[in-house]
Amino acid sequence: MASTESGTAANTLVDFGITGDLAHKMTLRALYRLEKRGLLDCRIIGVAADSWTLDHLVEHAKEGIAASGEKIDDEVFGRFVKRLSYISGDVTDDSLYAKLAEELGPDARTVYYLQMPPSLFGPIVEKLGEHKLLDGARVAVEKPFGHDLDSARDLNTRLRAVLAEEQLLRVDHFLGKSPVIELEYLRFANLALAELWDRKSVSAIQITMAENFGVEDRGRFYDPVGALRDVVQNHLLQVLALVAMDPPAGAGADDLRDKKGELLRAVRAADPKNYVRGQYQGYLDVPGVAPDSDTETFAALRLEIDNWRWAGVPIYLRAGKALAERVTEVRLHLHRTPKLAFLPKGGEAERNQVVLRIDPDPGLRIALTAKADQTADWTPLTLDATFGRELGEPLEPYERLLQAALVGDAQLFAREDSVEESWRIVQPLIDSPSPLHVYERGSWGPEKAADKLGHGHVNWHQPWMPDEV
Which residue intervals define the domain Glucose-6-phosphate dehydrogenase NAD-binding in the entry (predicted)? Predict the structure, then answer.
């Protein structure tokens, strides 16, 4: 088995799949922006099946970066292009790896980035091992990591036969989002939040990931996957781990990932009785979607955490396409204050809330209640902070993740135990899917989703949108 020092900076990035859609839309832009910031310090070897010249790849990169909305600086792009080289070939063919070995040379400290279908992860890594190209290297693989618990375990077993765990970086772009990273610091660096972050103060946690667009031209990819596998098993459960974990014991990557794994182990396997699936009207007309597809484009579920901090606090997750807004947020509902004689009449005050908006326009809201002047009614009072305005422009997710992979910082990558625990949590919902409910485009999903909150708990709240004052 190959090994590496996780903190060793790489001087070479080998990008398998550099001609693909993800690279065109996201990763080439991220690498260019790292160059612009002066943070890119490696050569880039692109690998793909397309019989392109280097000039073709350069034009493809320039077009993709410009199409993403990034203004191209010719001087910066010129520096970026000097880092590029390209090898074409079949990733199952030994001759490709012979050419790659010659291009790498003896002094390469390499990160291999696999923007490829998961079915090729094993064959590529095994070929790299056979050609002795893994010693001192790291390998970054894009999600999905399997399609259920058994396949995730099989994939991990196959990769770990060649790689040490510290060499393997499982990329989930959600973990590169600035507010997701900020969660750890907001919680544990601020006593005002840390002291209310448990079952004594919190009555419920809601995590929403809503998209206001449909599957569009991705029907062939999306239909075998669905919302549960696409975003709940990975994105939302990783966010939940950061929301609910205990403080890490140290500053190392494994200190953080130990606490995330510990939290996910404490989450009960999901109960199909507390799961709602939906499919937006018109989904069956999307090219690439089976005419009788039972795939969900909306998923809402309730979870429970069996530990001292969160016992008895319901956790609600929902994610969907073709919903009313595009927004991702974490919302903590606090317990109601007691009724006291001196407080105004007119009903109980609204529960206080802590809202972290992850996307778009990340920010933090504290929702309070005040007495309206000269009335007996309560009125909402919110304290809002927008991270971009207050903290400056952050790195974009793929900028952050690629830089972390290159410098050897594993904190932002999922570890094997967390991946398998996430699949364990949702496996009962895969084995026993609930009935499918059709919902209208532009709605907040099936009305049935509200029923799964349970008696005595809060309803889903309208998410906090960026233009709200």
Answer: 16-180
pLDDT in tens, 407-428: 999 999 999 999 999 999 999 9
CA separation for the pair 213, 208 (Å, rounded): 15
Write out the H or E segment, with its range, that includes residue 16. Answer: strand 12-16
Query: How far apart are alpha carbons 309 and 88 in whole angstroms?
Result: 53
One-letter amino acid identity for 286? V
Which phi and psi angles does 45 have, rounded to 5°? -105, 115
Q: Are 366 and 334 in contact (CB under 8 A)?
A: no
**Alpha helices per DSSP H over 175-252:** 178-188, 191-194, 219-222, 226-227, 237-244
pTM: 0.91
Q: What long-range pairs does 40-44 form, CB within 8 A, spacing at least 24?
A: 40/80, 40/83, 41/9, 41/11, 41/406, 42/10, 42/11, 42/12, 42/13, 42/83, 42/111, 42/406, 43/11, 43/12, 43/13, 43/83, 43/84, 43/85, 44/12, 44/13, 44/15, 44/83, 44/84, 44/85
Which amino acids are annotated as binding site for NADP(+), given as ranges? 49, 90-91, 143
Strand extents, DSSP E, 61-160:
84-88, 110-114, 138-142
Q: 10 Å Cβ neighbour count for 406?
A: 24
Output the six-digit token pair for 246: 């205990």
Environment class of residue 41 by beta-carbon count within 10 Å: exposed (0-12), middle (13-18) or buried (19+)?
Answer: middle
Binding site as annotated, residues for substrate: 173, 177, 211, 230, 321
Q: Enter the DSSP assignment of 19.
A: T
Active site residues: 235
The DSSP secondary-structure symbol of 48 reads E
Backbone torsions φ then ψ of 440, nearest 5 degrees = -80, 145
pLDDT single digits (tens) 197-242: 999 999 999 999 999 999 988 899 899 999 999 999 999 999 999 9
The encoded tokens of residue 366 equal 């504290």
Please provide the DSSP assignment of 151-171 as one string: HHHHHHHHHHTTS-GGGEEEE
Cα 116 from Cα 110, distance rounded (Å): 18
| Dihedral (Cα; 369, 372, 373, 377), 10-degree rounding | -130
